[in-house]
Each structure stands twice: as structure tokens, then as C-alpha cells.
Amino acid sequence: MEGDECSFPPDSSDDHSLRGSVASSATLSRAQDVLIYLFGDSAVHLTLEGLGTVTVQELGRNVREALHTPESVQDVFAFWLCSPLLELQLKTRHQPYKLCRQWHDLLYRFTEASEEDISQDEPCLQYRRSVFYPKSKELQIQEEGVLRLLYEEARSNILTGRYPCDPEHWTSLGALSIALDEGTSLDSQQFTTTIREKKLSSYLPAHVTMGSGGLFSTLRGKSSRQVGLEQNLFKEYSKICTSAGSSPEPTQLLHQYLNTCHTLPYYGCAFFFGEIDKPAQGILQRGKRKAVNIGICLEGVYVMDVKEKHVLLGLRFSELSWDHSYPEEEGDSHILWLEFDGDEDGTPVNKLLKIYSKQAELMSGFIEFCVELKSASEGAAAAEVDGEVSLSQQPGGQEERSKNGRGGRRGMLHRQGSVVCSRVQSLNTISYVDDGKEIKRLKPKRAASFFARQASAVSYSAVQTESLEQG
């Protein structure tokens, strides 16, 4: 998330926002050691003077010099303040030291963490991919060092399940990682030995290698499952060796890995934490919620099931409208509202998904910023293509943009069995129709008797409500 999409609370050095690991103001004028963390268990060690006033822009120059990367790729990466509770992408004018001093305030404002967890939380400064760098430009990069930084970050997101992917994806990506680590000349026996020394979890997502089910089923099926995963990996590895040759350039394999990741629509997203309502399965199971990750990038918004590692809802900006609401009473939640088109028994309806999160305000501002940025870049590209042709001479193009804009009719979602695709049917959404005069919410008709086990098909009727949040 972008660091100042919403205003931060004022700096307060006398209360819980002071970080214990940050130098006191009396020593800031002297040279201080700073660690900038990278993906892949490495870090850049810098010694800086005037730490309290050092900006992200200045840090960037120092890190690029230490990593020997050219200035031409400065837009690829950004500095992030990260912890298990919150992630912030910083802007070039930000001063990381001052934001560290406000870290507790930010956690109180934007997370549901307990006071104890907040008091123990410590952010680290990371150098990682910028959310605003287009995927189309990424594959034009030829510097191996830059590509490896992008690769390590993508690999981490695959292995931790932050990027849900199907078996063909994680098998291909795992085989590419082995080729990058060990070369492309391993035979079957060498391959198996290498895999077992480094463990499958070094190349495949953790939830895949652990499997599902209880402890006994996991132990009983672990051996056979591991053999099957190893065999599939070796088949894919052999294909890579055949197509790439005995000694391919590392950049060739790195590009192939990143290109595969680009097929995942949420690649490069900023991630937020939230909850959604579970579909009611009975009177006693109402009111339960499900933990979700919300990924936002230049293309759209993606809601992912934290436990099951699959996409619940994926919407491009042309397919959604959004808003956020603040708590009205004590105990209420911040809510991000996502509106999109759907159907109920063949009837076109508008659907609303409620995402409960103290980061709702941040997500709403971030979506708006991405929409504006995307519109500006598309406008610049259109102007370059059109040349001197005026918009007044192209009414069809204007009409098409109005259809895809936020105020137009959004495209219907296409769904299938992949973990990448939306599972709208599993969401607890609010369905309604707007006939131009009033908003009518759709609810299923109840059977004549609660105890009657009628086999009749469920139909829907319009129920007028004063507020869509009721019921």
C-alpha cells in the first residue's frame, strides 16, 4: 500500500510510537548502521549520517550503488516498511526514521492487533518491487541482478501461498527454480537427491507439500504424495532442460519464471488484511467471518481465501464500483464495499460484498489512486497512437470508454475451476436491482412452513429496504 494515500497521525515521540530499535535523536547526527532487507534472506548494510532526515530518494541512490544496479531501473523498486501486521510502500519524499517512530500509531489505526502484539511489533525496511511498475516493462529488463531481485520476491510469494496458483503453475515454477539453483544437467538420481536434501518446500508452496487432512492422514500419505510431486517436478525439469539446452543464460530462465508469474492477475499487488461474512448454513452458523487477503494492483482488486489459498473474487476496475464506510457506533467495523454485476436465477442483479477491515480507508484510497494512474497512462497511450486525430472525430471510442468506466455497465465475470478464478457462488453478498425509481433487495422466498421439507425450487422476490446494510 502507498504510504500516504491517507494522512498519517502526527509524530509523537513520548508515547508508544517510539521504536526501541531506532536511535535516539541525540545520536542521529552521527553515522548510523542501517539494514535494508531484500527477499532471499539477504540485506544491504549501509552507514548513513543524519538518519533522522534521510529520505527514501537518498536511500535509493545508496542501495542502487551497493547493488550495482543502473539508475534506469530506479522505478522498478520501492522501499517498504513491513511487519506481520502491516505493509507500507513509501514515497520518495518519506523519511523512514520518522515513520518508524509512528509505527505503533499506524498499527492502532489500521489493524485489529492487540495492545500486546502492537507493543512487540517491529517493522523492517525492505527494498522490493513497486506496485506501480507495469508488468509490460518488467520483461524488457536485461540486468541479471535486477531480475534476480524480482525473481526472489515472486518466488517467496509463490512458496508462502500469497500468490494462489494451479498445479501446472507451481510445478513449472518449482522446476525453473531448480534449474536456476542447480543448473540443467541433473539426471533423475541427482535430481531426487537434490530435492530431498533441500526439501520440497524450497520449491513448492507450503500448503502443497504439507497436504490437507488430519495428522494421521498427513503422515500416512506423505511418502506417496512426495514421490508423486518429485516425479511431476522432474518431468517439468526435463522439459525445461530440453528446451533451454545444457547451459542456458540465467536471464533466460529468470524471464521465463517472471513471465509465468505474469499470468497470475494479482502479480505485483499490494496486500491488505480483512474479513468477509461466511454464507449462512443454518440458524446457529450465522455471523461467522472468513479471513481474506485483498490484493490491489494497477489492473484490479482480488479477494483471496487465506486458508484455502484460492481466489474468491477477482475484479478489474472496469468491472467494479467501490466505497468505504466508517463505524457509526461502538463495536462497528470499517467496511470496504465492492459492487459488481451478477445474476440470480438468470435475473441480472447488482451484488455488494462487504469487507470488514480497519484498512478499508487505505484500500479505498489506493483503488482510487490506481484507477487514476491507469486512466492517465491509457490516456497518454491513446494520445500517442491517435496522433493529431481529435476525440470529436472518434465518437465510437468515447462510447467504448464510457462503457468500461466506473459509471458504465461492468463486464460480467467468467468463472471456472481454477484457483485463479472467482468463486462468487461461495460469497455471502447482498443482491439488489435498481429499476431507476428505487433500490430493491432480492431475498429468497421462505417455504410456507419452516418445518415443511418442500422440494420446490427457490425463487426470488424484490423486498424494499431502507438500507442495504440491514438484514
UniProtKB/TrEMBL annotation:
<dbReference type="InterPro" id="IPR019748">
    <property type="entry name" value="FERM_central"/>
</dbReference>
<dbReference type="InterPro" id="IPR057096">
    <property type="entry name" value="KRIT1_FRMD8_FERM_C"/>
</dbReference>
<dbReference type="GO" id="GO:0090090">
    <property type="term" value="P:negative regulation of canonical Wnt signaling pathway"/>
</dbReference>
<feature type="region of interest" description="Disordered">
    <location>
        <begin position="385"/>
        <end position="414"/>
    </location>
</feature>
<dbReference type="Pfam" id="PF24522">
    <property type="entry name" value="KRIT1_FRMD8_FERM_C"/>
</dbReference>
<dbReference type="InterPro" id="IPR019749">
    <property type="entry name" value="Band_41_domain"/>
</dbReference>
<dbReference type="InterPro" id="IPR011993">
    <property type="entry name" value="PH-like_dom_sf"/>
</dbReference>
<feature type="domain" description="FERM">
    <location>
        <begin position="32"/>
        <end position="378"/>
    </location>
</feature>
<protein>
    <recommendedName>
        <fullName>FERM domain-containing protein 8</fullName>
    </recommendedName>
</protein>
<dbReference type="InterPro" id="IPR051594">
    <property type="entry name" value="KRIT1/FRMD8"/>
</dbReference>
<dbReference type="InterPro" id="IPR035963">
    <property type="entry name" value="FERM_2"/>
</dbReference>
<dbReference type="InterPro" id="IPR000299">
    <property type="entry name" value="FERM_domain"/>
</dbReference>
<dbReference type="InterPro" id="IPR014352">
    <property type="entry name" value="FERM/acyl-CoA-bd_prot_sf"/>
</dbReference>
<dbReference type="Pfam" id="PF00373">
    <property type="entry name" value="FERM_M"/>
</dbReference>
<dbReference type="GO" id="GO:0005886">
    <property type="term" value="C:plasma membrane"/>
</dbReference>
<feature type="compositionally biased region" description="Basic residues">
    <location>
        <begin position="404"/>
        <end position="413"/>
    </location>
</feature>
